Amino acid sequence: NNNLILNLIRPHIEIHLWPMYGREVKYLIREVEILSIEEFDEINKTFKEHEIVVSVKVLTLKHIEEVILSIRVKPNGVIIETIA
To answer: Using the 8-state DSSP alphabet, how is residue 23 labeled?
Structure first.
């Protein structure tokens, strides 16, 4: 299940990191790891919201940098915030 979740959120992660690392960020991402998944109360009987915290390791010119992201998955979209 983790691979499925990562495949679905990876394009959103790349879009979020693009301003920080440039257009080719998808080639700089070395590893994405799910740290936690939290399910929130139902919005209605069909949909739930989830918060996924991920660690993203990005190759920079000098070293590998780790970025921690909070990804809020809602029925109508995805919101990403950088934690660290």
So the answer is: T
Query: Under 8 Å CB-to-CB from 39, ≥6 apart: which residues?
Result: 48, 49, 50
Neighbours of 54 (CB within 10 A): 22
Strands (E), 1-84: 29-42, 48-59, 64-74, 77-82
pLDDT of residue 43: 64
Q: pLDDT tens across 4-47, in order?
A: 999 999 999 999 999 999 888 988 999 999 999 998 877 667 78
Q: What are phi and psi of 57, to 5 degrees?
A: -100, 120
Buried b (16+ CB within 10 A) or exposed e, 72-84: ebeeeebebeeee
Phi, psi angle pair for 16, to nearest 5°:
-65, -40
